[in-house]
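Appendix B, example 12.
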Amino acid sequence: MDEMFNLITLVLIPKGGYMKFLRVLFISLMSMIFVVGGACAESALNQILSSGKLKAGTTGDFNPFSVRDPSTNKYKGYDIDIMTELANDLGVEIEFVPTDWKTIVNGVVAGKYHITGSASIKPSRMKAAGFSESYLAVNFKPFTTTDKVDNFKGWDSINKNGVKVATTLGTAMEPLVKAWFPNASIKSVEAPARGYQEVLAGRADVFVTSNLEGSTLKAKYSNVKEISIDAPRSPTPLAMLLPQSDQVWINFVNHWIEIKKAKGYFKKTADKWGL
């Protein structure tokens, strides 16, 4: 047990005066963990250190956060860098476990993975799973294609009979578009399909996504156009999903986020991916 304590403090707590405050917090936390032996034995933190592997759930369809290359089955993106860095600091390997938005919460609850990439913090997810501290926020905008962009101006122009709005099952956007556009026709598709793909294929008129993914899609597809609106809607913090009852693991991840923020890692990674 002493060896595990030393490993965690050595790997995650950098030496130096500028981190002294966080170092004290971390040592206090670790001391409580090892005093309460039963809680530690049940924690994902113990499982990760014992197995030498951090299992991270990711969808592979959230550009630029997590994108899967079907030819290699490898992932890249902001989330992938963040979770790989966490594994490196723990001194373990990283294993990315495929999931989708409809089952992402179920996966962490069932123990299929220890953590997920960025997910919107919302009450329906909070009922079943825990969240880390937020490290990034998004808001939501509507998009269409070049041939239809002149048909829309403002959010109200979308909420009309005959307008088809595409969304993906299980995403944070699905309940929002249903609430925002009761007069429009909502087309929900199941992952790996995405709402924007329905619009590009001409099977729907509008999709709504985060400002971050929207910018990426506009750069990738010249046909994707942002609909003119007065302001984005629903500013939403992003965080990692974690087992709800595992306070040891949640505290550990939160202190890790705090340390990496202080060292500029999150800003550097966000800049790398244009966030």
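Residues 1-7, 34-41 have pLDDT under 50 and may be disordered. The longest strand covers residues 136-145.
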